[in-house]
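My current task is to audit a protein record that another person submitted. What it holds is a sequence and that sequence's fold in token form. Thanks in advance; the entry in question is below.
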Amino acid sequence: MSAVALLTRLGLATLAFTVLAGFLVLARRALRERLGAEAAYALWLLVPLGVGLCCWPVHREVVPVEAAAAPVLHAGLLQSLPAAPSTGSDAAAVLACIWLLGAAGSALQLCLRQRAFIRALGALQRLEEDTWISTRSDAGPLLAGLLRPRIVVPADYATRYSPQEQAAVLAHERMHRSRGDLWWNALCAALRCAFWFHPLASGAQRAYLADQELACDSAVLRSGTHAPHTYANALLKTQLAVALPLGCAMQAASPLRERILNLARRPAPRRLRVLTALVLAGAAVAGGQIAWAASAEKVAADDAVPASAAAFRIVTDLAIDGGAVRHADQTVRGALHLDDLRDGEGRSCAADLVPHPRPGGVIDIRMMLRCAGQPAVTPRLLTRAGQPATVAIGRTQEQADGSIVTTRGFRLTMTLHPL
């Protein structure tokens, strides 16, 4: 993917992130009051869904075009077409590098912080099959470890919490594990690293983690096993703790007052949770259809003869910047796609060539060239079966013997044999 195409995708993803995350940050309290904490938390799935749809891969579609839409090159004729201007391509490459370095730096910083936190827990002692005791009294209860989730409780766990409160604490962390919150938090961290430059990213992450804790509290109380006052006492005893970079910590995100008030609310009825799931599924389907339509790359074809109607054996000789010739022999039905091309400005290009048989043994080759992710030129070549046709894109130079060499760009010779 070219730098221009990468920045275009990043711009669309940034817009989607801004709209969706901004809306949820502003409306989260109202949504929680109307839908309940669990449904409000589930709506955060819209953010990675919207960002992911903006990164939908490009697919090619063959569409009809008018014959006059492209210049015609006859077989054996070498023509150097003007390359599209490269204005802004260098700046795009610099900006893409800056973004990649920032994302990589953010990811590295997160990994180092997580490693330091896990080491700071000290030697862990097994309490139960999935529960471990830390040597520190200011860390936990928490759930950490993507591949091997562990519940870690503080060193004074047995004396700080009553038996009922201990059961509530373990139920809270096990609820995180059963809901897959560790993986959702990893996805959230990945988005945070990708949008390291966005002023909303940090606040959105805090709001998301706060809603996650509120949803987990509601899910635990919905089971009816633990009394709200017992759960509230456990929360009151869990407020002093160090922050966990990546994981689920019982005390981490929501203000204490907000969590205590949330315990007094009735859990959302099942129909609201089902409705939320249906809304998310509908948004995924509709968004996928929109993204599929928006990511189509149009390839020129002919009204009368669909691109898939004729098969050809195509022999190609391709030279880049006057270098060694690359020979290929392949059978194609539809479009022949060529990557790793260069134009006269040295930009990365790709081409799609769609051959169409014409009356009288003529073969009409439609070509669409894209450079730096943008449409460049759309030449046509008219040739006959078994007769080579040549096209050159870029800068050419005539040699002493009268031959022409493409010094910057590519030179393609094709011989087609209908099947």
Q: What stands out?
A: The chain has two domains: 3-58+90-289, 72-83+299-418. The two ends are 34 Å apart (CA to CA). Residues 65-72, 74-87, 300-308 have pLDDT under 50 and may be disordered. Residues 3-58+90-289 form one domain.
